[in-house]
């Protein structure tokens, strides 16, 4: 059973657009009808947490060049049984980028997404296609702070100017449906 606090946060979330409205309803259905969404034991769908990490002026975003997807992408990861998604994303930010000094712009969920993950090889083993039931938090950090790669997951970490972002993303669906939404929401926040 998924933590009631998570369900309440998702139920009380105010969708930004049609994608979030539909994904919010599906997330709630998944929570109410599917077991083991907090771990990868559920191979069809499980929760992940992501960070949209922006500079204080909201003109840059911190992204990692993801080795599996061969594209710059936001930071985040599987919740692996931890119902404290803010704790999960804090850990993931530091693990994936080395960034240790950052702040949550809000304690609330910033964005909701259901993301398709194509089958791939990870650590020498095939992982079947599945869904990531994703919650995103808005994070702010200083681009002058030290960052580093995590070689087993990414081969670059960079602060990317928003105007350059379309040229850095090799996943058109992500840019159109997710990153553009996050850019717009962060500018209005």
From TrEMBL:
One of its GO terms (molecular function) is hydrolase activity. Its EC number is 3.3.1.1. Residues 44-185 form the Nudix hydrolase domain. Keywords: Hydrolase. Belongs to the Nudix hydrolase family. This is Adenosylhomocysteinase. The lineage of its organism: Bacteria, Bacillati, Bacillota, Bacilli, Lactobacillales.
């Amino acid at each position: 059973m998924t933590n009631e606090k998570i369900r309440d946060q998702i139920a009380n979330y105010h969708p930004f657009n049609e994608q979030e409205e539909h994904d919010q309803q599906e997330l709630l259905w998944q929570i109410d009808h599917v077991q083991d969404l907090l771990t990868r034991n559920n191979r069809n769908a499980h929760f992940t947490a992501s960070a949209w990490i922006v500079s204080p002026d909201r003109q840059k975003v911190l992204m990692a060049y993801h080795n599996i997807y061969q594209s710059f992408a936001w930071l985040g990861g599987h919740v692996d049984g931890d119902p404290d998604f803010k704790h999960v994303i804090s850990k993931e930010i530091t693990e994936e980028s080395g960034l240790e000094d950052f702040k949550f712009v809000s304690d609330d969920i910033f964005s909701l997404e259901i993301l398709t993950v194509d089958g791939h090889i990870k650590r020498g083993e095939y992982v079947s296609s599945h869904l990531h039931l994703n919650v995103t938090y808005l994070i702010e950090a200083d681009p002058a702070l030290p960052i580093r790669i995590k070689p087993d997951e990414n081969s670059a970490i960079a602060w990317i100017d928003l105007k350059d972002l379309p040229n850095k993303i090799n996943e058109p669906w992500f840019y159109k449906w997710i990153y553009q939404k996050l850019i717009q929401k962060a500018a209005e926040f």
